[in-house]
Prior knowledge:
Elements: H1 2-23, E1 45-52, E2 55-61, H2 65-68, E3 73-81, E4 88-97, E5 104-118, E6 123-133, E7 143-149, E8 157-162, E9 172-176, E10 182-188, E11 193-199, E12 206-213, E13 217-225, E14 228-235, E15 245-249, E16 260-261, H3 268-271, E17 273-281, E18 286-294, E19 304-309, E20 311-313, E21 316-318, E22 325-328, E23 333-336
Antiparallel strand pairs: 1-2, 2-3, 3-4, 5-6, 6-7, 7-8, 9-10, 10-11, 11-12, 13-14, 14-15, 15-16, 17-18, 18-19, 20-21, 22-23
Bound molecules: beta-D-galactopyranose (GAL).
Family: Belongs to the glycosyl hydrolase 43 family.
InterPro entries: Glyco_hydro_43 (IPR006710), Glyco_hydro_beta-prop_sf (IPR023296)
Keywords: Glycosidase, Hydrolase, Signal
Amino acid sequence: MLKIFKLILYTTATLLVFNTLAQKQLVINPGEKWADMDGNHIQAHGGGVIKIGKTYYWYGEQRSKEFDIDTVHHYVSCYASKDLINWKFKGNAIKLARPDTALEGKHWVLERPKVYYNKKTKKYVMYMHIDGVVKGKRYGFASVGVAISNKPEGPFKYLNAFRPLGKESRDIGQFIDDDGSAYLIFESRPSKGFYIAKLSDDFLTVEKEVSFIQAPLEGGAIVHYKGLYYVIGSALTSWAPNPNKVATATSLAGPWSTFSDIAPPETNTYSSQSTMLLKVEGKKQTTVLYMGDRWKPSAQWDSRYLWMPVEIQEGKVWIPKPKPWHINVKTGEVRYIEQINK
Ligand code: GAL
């Protein structure tokens, strides 16, 4: 009897280990379907990643078929990972019904959500681009929505929507400096450029303009690396990819250099659009990751992610030709695994 019990135990344990191993992914395959730990294509588009303790959280637009057909609500997904490669779906962090009475008609959008953790208040604060028809004009609301939660995975409670610094705001980006100060990057059509603005101490509002970059760019992202601020953005071509660009400054307030390409322009940033630059500071090296979206406007649930470690030095950011890669988040080292899945 004991022998049989031991055998069952052994078989179950082996199966469990095998299963875990089978599901564990070793590489990020840029532009391919990216399965979460339950085997579903990750739904975190136009997203952002933050690190809390040893855990990375990835928030983004939830666009799975099931939720994308819901015209009443929009959802922000939350995933967690210890290695940036294997992500566990933690659920939808917010389910939001049309958040403002100024929005006309049924159709409204929630895009590019970003979450900040405020150490003082111990709250998670979500910013999202809220838009829709106002006075008959598409994308006429041009505001940010703010929501708050006690836990990273939510549920987030919606607070309000406003125009940061009183300005029209469309694509938003997130930047947290090494000293913990938090910034919102937002594109403003009337002044043809984007703003870098400091959040208030509690992160619940946008307090002050730090810089205005006069360049018709969106999908703004910033990284502070070896004494330089690098800002990247994409041209205003809706869902279609274009050659994304980079500029630098020694201070967030500028002055900013002129913009240059971050990939061979004919590849249109390898068919992607910027959403974030993520700095991974390991024991051996610091690696900066470009996070981009490869949108599929007629089937957004199948939109892909193009994440690649970038070459970054002396004012240049360059995305190498996409290929499968692995990162060791403890050391910061990246390895490429060529010819995988071929
Ligand atoms: C893109 C923008 C997306 C979405 C889209 C709609 O340029 O980055 O977030 O707003 O336009 O056309």
